[in-house]
Protein 1
Amino acid sequence: MRLTQLFASLLFLVCLIAGRPASALTVCVADTATLANALGAFNTLPDGATLTIKLVKGTYPIGSALGAVYYSSYPESVGLKLLGGYSAGCTSRTIDPTNTVIDGLGQNGAYLGVTIHGDVDLLIEGVTFTRLVGSSVYHSALSLGLDVTSSDTSTIEIRHSRFVNNTARQVIHLSGAQMRFVNNLVAHNTIEAGSDSAAVYAMYSYDADSMLVATNNTIADNSGPGLLVDTSINSDSSRLSEIADNILRGNGTADLSLGHFATASNPLLVYQNMIGTTTGYTPDATNLASDPRFVDAAGGNYRLQSNSPAINSGAFLQLWGFPAHDITGGTRIVGSRIDRGAYESPIDDSTTAIVSTTADNGNNTSPVPGSLRAAIKAANAAAGPYTIRFNIAGGCPRLLSLAAPMLDVTGDVTIDGTSQPGWTPNTHFGAFDANLCFAINGAGNPNTPWALHVPASAPASARLVVRGIAFAGFNDAAIKLEGGRGHSIAGNQFGALAFTPANASAIRVTGNSGAAFIGGYDDESAVNLVAGSSGAGVYIDNAAGGSVVANNVIGFLPDGLSSSPNANGVFVFNSKNNTIQYNYIGNNLSSGVILSGSGSNGNRVQYNIIGMAYDGSPSGNGSAGVLVSFAARNNTIGAPLNATWGGNFIVASTGAGVWISPSGGAGNSVLDNEFVGNGALDVDLAAAGPSANQATNPATGPNGLQNYPVLATATRDRVHGIEVVTGVLDSAPNTTYRLDLYYGPDCNAHAAGRGLALYPLMKTAVTTGALGNVPFTASVPFGWGNLPLGVISATVTDPNGNTSEIGNCIEEIDDDPIFADGFEVPH
């Protein structure tokens, strides 16, 4: 079968397995009755659908009309979006919660609850909730959560919203795996007494790997505790939570309560906040206790006075990225750093220069006035942060051809190409439709190795932010970061420019440079296009590590479909603790992602689409999807060892899906990924192709040449919705292994007798005896009864993270003879 045919059939199976038909209901709402009817439809939608409720601007006096907890009809998983700020007819939108108000009128029963389950999301954005009254049963004014069938992949998010003058034990109750509370105002609420009282109460799910992202909020002047985070009695999470850049002030009892948070088993970062009082936590020096100086807190105006210490004092970077705008839709970062809290002040603490010409004389002593070279020279001489903006006459784009190497950047410099007239932002993930109106061309000249460079000699305070610029023709890297830290590269295009030569690399993070953020989260305008590089598209080899590469399009033309290969997509060499997430990485001549060198440890490669375009068409990389080599160790490709979230989708690689090569190190876990149409083993250790199990484990070789489990039978129990698999594992004695079972339509055509890891079933554990041997029977959920009978295969991973190759394939047996031929489908 040809690759395209195989891919089409496998993709069809993936759609069947995922159970996510392209179903959605969008309702434009302009009155309370229509809102009630729309929410009432939540439990009527089919599995995998999303209900989007668009609220026309105005006030909705709901009283007790919505006083209920809305569920999707089990077992269907249905997502919900409640979005404010629409014009009449929902033809346009302005995100500002003051223009869309849900008013409970202070009536008993004026509350709202939504519960979801399965792999769907829940989002509330741009809405004010006022005068709600907590339920006598649920005690919350607004309750959003996952039920007992929770999912590690579901996200519950509230952003750019206001909660004022409500009465409840908990004004907002969040409970789930991924909870995000971003850029909201919670103020002047009456908090009723209780051990779990709080204006914002976030509880980790009982049976999911949970995290909380609480950033850029103002939670102030509530009568009870401000933010309370409860890890629940069973929580032991691999996910890193983040509480950053908030203002938590003037709340009763405690502004931040972590007395119910199990820090030993749940990682958490708390930094750059303004916090008055705390319980269960002692703030570090980045968290200020000073008065934020609101304009008029008593009158409900929580904007910042011009002398507020919250202005331009937030973090250089946030783990989960900055919000795209502030609570009222204004520019989120004005000045050198983000403001703490929900509102961004117009005060810009940076000196500003305007680039007005594309002329360049190459003279660093006497550059052309109004040129980029002159602006960088002024920026380096400035005592504080410096912003370079553009206003060059003429059409779009304007092209700067460098006459000589550009001045190094040694200060705190923002180069904002989005200010050039005609610029428009990218509008969706997976492609790049931004209109960039300023470009820099090195023309392949050996005297112009880079466009922008932070040298190793730069002070630790040096920081480069680059937005909205196109780059081509640089022989080293278009942007090379050797010193400083906290750099941000977002919304740029590297390569794929007509009539220009390629860059050797788009971005290189090297030398003694600290963390860099390349791309962004939850903001389409932050996506970078990385195309046509003769070397690595993104090259990271700084020893300090800690960079984030997120939501970029790597190896494609701007349409996100056509090929524009780099030599390889992302190359991490002797660099640690980097995060590579949510990128589209395809068409590259070698591997999509390479982790190499003994210093490459602790890196996370998660949630990426490797080898596929955003429309689902195959765009495979020329070698492995992910290659681990030269002693790279202890890296995570997909889920963490104790979790089932973070998997990548790895498609159509010429070689293996993930290859831990003969030179690779130990402890590299490869878990919960989905593989389609790769040209070799989906998970391969040592020499290319299947490797035999070893007489003893661990052995000498990559991942200790961890043995794979040998399966004997696989039975689909349709009545109970489980897969029952028997087999045996021979490995180290008295050791508990993670066993992962995978479904595939057939055995691997490129590796006789081995399986295809098309879809991960749930994990389980097996423990060897004193002789290192364990026969096992594993029963795991398999809820996809309409899927044709296929084959089952497996990997194991030891406690140190060493994942085996994908093992042998076993044809499924149906326990119901009615369906034994695989054609009848139960209804």
Note: Residues 3-18 form the longest helix (16 residues).
Protein 2
Amino acid sequence: MGQRTQLILLLLFIPYFLMERTAGDDYNGLLSLMNDMKNTPPNWVGSDPCGNKWDGIVCTNSRVTTLQLLSMNLSGTLSGEIQLLSELQTLDLSYNSYLTGQLPPSIGSLKKLVNLNLIGCGFFGSIPDTIGNLQQLTTLSLTNNSFSGPIPASIGNLSKLYWLDLAVNQLDGPIPVSPGLDTLLQAKHFHLDNNKLSGEIPPQLFSSNMILLHLILNGNNLNGSIPDTLGNVQTLEVIRFDRNLLSGTLPSNLNNLVKVNELYLSNNKFIGPIPNLTGMSLTYVDLSNNSFAVSDIPPWVSTLQSLTTLVMENTQLQGTVPNSIFNLPNLQTLTLRNNKLNGTLNISTSYSNKLQLIDLQNNSIAEYVDTAGGYSKNLILVDNPVCNKLDATKSYCAVSQSNTPPYLTPPNSCVPAQCTSKQISSPNCKCAYPYSGTLVFRAPSFSDLENSSYYIALQSSLMQCFQNFSLPVDSVSLNNPIKDSTKNLELSLELFSSGQDRFNRTGISIIGSLLSGQTFKPPQGFGPYYFLADPYGYYAGISTESKKSLSIGVIIGAVAGGTILLLLLVLAGVYALRQKRRAERASEKLNPFAHWDPNNGSGGIPQLKGARSFSFEELKKYTNKFSEANSIGSGGYGKVYQGILPTGQLIAIKRAQTESMQGGVEFKTEIELLSRVHHKNLVSLVGFCFDQGEQMLVYEYVPNGTLKDGLSGKSGIRLDWIRRLKVALGAARGLAYLHELANPPIIHRDIKSTNILLDERLNAKVADFGLSKLMGDAEIGHVTTQVKGTMGYLDPEYYMTQQLTEKSDVYGFGVVMLELITARMPIERGKYIVRVVQTAMDKTKVLYNLHEILDPAIGLQTSLKGLEKFVDLAMRCVEESGANRPAMGMVVKEIENIMEQAGLNPNAESATTSESYDVNKENSHHPYSNEGFEYSGAYPTLKIEPH
């Protein structure tokens, strides 16, 4: 080819090379993101993100200015090469809970960034100081991650910042000022709730130059008093200081904040008088659980015409409840329990028709005057003298449970469709895959959650917003409004696509960004909010076809000849090698056993049947970062946490602490064993985690605790004789399955009342297979192994010979049977339950003369049909010699016979759920907590005393 032709072609490509110096950086930056993240959109192919219209990308003049990848199920980390997107104005990666790692400091190089939203991701570590370099930033939302460390003082450099939301993280240290948040004079929203911030609220944080609307600091460790300077910020509408360690007296100038609607000061250590709040525009007031000076209900309360909710629980109130307070026209809830109110309660006939709840529990009210046409809604006077009278049978002397079903958007004058699979019938009665999530409102002005008018207004407002942006939303559904433990209002939201049964990625990104970026404004009364989306995996229009263009390479190859062709081949080789490594990394991430090394003593890769592997970050998300609120038990092995999968399934996660971790072989054996057993009377293994140095087992969640808790009364469930027979039968069936139907058979080795769980219908489920053994050689009939078990349940023959058999489980089950009739621990004050029963038994007398040791809660002794045969069976199970004990299959048959002779159907499920019983969840010990002494070593000497 002539030099002239080459020169012409070179001139033709000069604009291309010049463009590559700018748009090429964007392309390289996006390639880096693809390299570090999984599940980027499948149409991210080709070399021109703008021309090829990559999902989630918006361009201006061939430069990437918006990157929105919301709810894409992204995983991995955010590449530091994000800085190459130098024209980026909006970065929104919200609702990708598996997107983890630290936020790269290079984020501070995006000098044109206006919106940074990373809500509901899995980022951890400190927020980089370089965040203060983003001078154009107006919105910074890092809500619901795992960020730790202090709030960077450099945030004070963001002079244009309007929305600051760092809530629901692990941030600690003081609130930074000078420099710090005090310089953010354009900010209207400080949302710093549910972190670990400490120290005093600095007085210099507030000034009259601020235009702050929402000051939300609840759920931290802030101490000291509220500074008087707070009264200078007269634009404030919402103040939340609740659940901190604040003390001292309230500022006398709070009354200056005339625009404040919601005031939360509960659960602190405030003292002194309650200040006069007449000048404020209060709708919701919560001053509960403080140490204010003893006083009557302040008279100014009756002047708050906009008030919907007054909560002053445990605030040292005394005197009578003024009649005038019930006449407030908008009052919905009045909660004044745990005070010293006295005298006569007189609710006038002119009380507000919006008033749904009056809670005056635990006061000293002596009389209630029920005037003509008296209050007919929910009045609670439990633990007042008025309810201590012999004739106190009124409804207000009991805590009633509302039977009102949770709100659910009704169908729009149509018959709901019968949908299959995971589709849901929309309000317009069309089957679809909705985009769902939770709307969290931090300070609603109302407390009547049964008033549907609020949700109708919210639904209409959402639809109007989507229509204004011409989004393909067919309908909106809201359901299940609840107040969470932090007093936020949570609402489940479902959005349905129009024209087809699912959304595409573009639709999801735009809808999500309207909610993450606060473009949607809720109706008055709902207050500040954030949205947490559920994973969405039903995208429409997915195409995995690669459309990579090689035209440029072909042209250059033809022009430049052999030398350039060779260069291209080298580059292609490098590219292929890079792609191969990327594929290997992706494969490794997809393979849960990629790091399972068979050469380090952990054996080959586990063979699972029906269980799955979870990553550490997944379980961290499902347990709210392993928060204390999700902790439901503990033992020598570590802690147990309650979690919830994206499918809604409740799970219990048993997390081993470092010193109790098993070796690789033992852990592998346990999860393999657990994944093989499937029976309705065995707790199911959902999966496990062997990641980041963790060993965790994930079980189905069993709600009603252990049999031991049921017998001791800790769980609040009353177990009568019939229910105890059913529990015994269920546990026996579970063990019989292990012994006789599992292949090879399994010996549990730790049968005890804390390892028998009760589900929502009080069906028994055998749990905790940590000490279980496979019966590998059926001809030998035993396994020779180190003695392990729990004192009081341990088979003496197993201890003497170290030969473990199925009859060792039978012995432990016999002890459990004796627990069922006595509710006594196996060893109590030196007395062994087996010996106690043997000593007391007299077969010539009614009920074998066991009246004195029977559990009184078991029921009327005259109705204990079959108890003698039950005791006979239990004593056979605890025979000294295993050969004299029945097999578990025979135990099952004999319990079935006992039930049939008592007129019961052994195959019938409980007809009533446990909700029929008085269940006190706060006092229950969770089934996965490993109570009792786990024996491993020499058998202890027991001092057995006669009963």
Note: Residues 707-936 form a domain with the Transferase(Phosphotransferase); domain 1 fold (CATH 1.10.510.10).
